[in-house]
Amino acid sequence: MNVYDELVQRGFVQQVSNESALRALLEKEKITCYIGFDPTATSLHVGNLVQIMALAHMQRAGHRPIALMGGGTVMIGDPSGRTELRQLLTLEQITANAAKIREQFSRFISFENDKALLINNADWLLKLNYVEFLRDIGRHFSVNRMLATEAYKTRLETGLTFLEFNYQVLQAYDYLMLHRRYGCVLQMGGNDQWGNILPGADLVRKVENKEVFALTTPLLTTASGQKMGKTAAGAVWLSAEKFKPYDFYQYWINVDDRDVIKLLRLYTFLSLAEIAKLEKLQGAELRTAKELLASEVTTLLHGKEEAEKAKKAAHALFSHEGEGAEIPTMRLNSSRFAQGMKAIDLFHLAGLSPSKSEARRLIEGGGAYVNRRRIESIEDVITAADFEDDALLLRAGKKRYLKVVVEDD
Predict the structure, then answer these.
(1) What is the pTM of this model?
(2) The domain boundary residue, chosen from 297, 319, 341
(3) How far is Cα 16 from Cα 11, in angstroms, rounded to an integer?
(4) Is 361 a residue whose pLDDT tops 80?
């Protein structure tokens, strides 16, 4: 199958420039493509994983992906989707973040024998001569056209800095440099980047008189409307230090039934034929598909051993043997329980309910447990006397567990 058709059928394609020409090119040639990742933190997250998987599919089809680390662009900050200026990082922070993120790419993409490239745009952006750059590159950009893009229109309402205004131009310059140095002809990214990707393709056309392509992936939301990769406790990170393998496994086990097939297409390398068979499962049978999803994604990121450990720990919990299992843990100071803490507050604080009203509904529905004891009333208070060996085992519904451990100052 043409890799473009594969990407479409798996749900990776939202917008594309000159679809028929790109599809024909991918049919007859092995190309070089890229996606940029700004190292704004020490880890990427599940939202970024869609982009990494897109690059991995390109590589598996014989094409050469470039993972471009935005060591230069992150010094400015992408205004897309922001209502205020991003926090500016020091060069030391950027370098440290980039080093951590590099390890995560290699879980999905092989960089052996130049089958893929990992490049930092700081290599050329930090050496630019400002006046020269304005004359050679800046003259190709229309300010009116730039201000019409969604990212800039939104920021004009709250205040757009001149610093951020340069971001689109620098991202476009990245495409030109990658085209010149490596023959790159396709830039991909999230759909919020469409306004930044097209100017790059346009710049290459103007400067090099060559058609290159742009493709964006959809910005994923769950069936409940929540942004993919977000939990009550925060982002689902790819780093084991920031998000434990067990928690990562549990995230996929607990996805909405309506999302399972979509996520199998996007986040695993299972064939479309295999996934089509799973699509026929309904009701309780969907647990099989969820376990497969959790196992596949956790194995890709953390390895088979960690995936198996997470699976066994989950099974132990479901069979009521969870006290010794490797489950997510939250530490709280013992003083919090001196006067007692309402169960509603505890379940919300633990991230098992996104709000106190949700915690109230959970308790009223009979789905809240402490040490296997069902919380019967919204007035129930948890005190130090409820702890066993300085720990509590909380359960929300049938699937979500969290251990609370008390400690003194």
Answers:
(1) 0.78
(2) 319
(3) 13
(4) yes
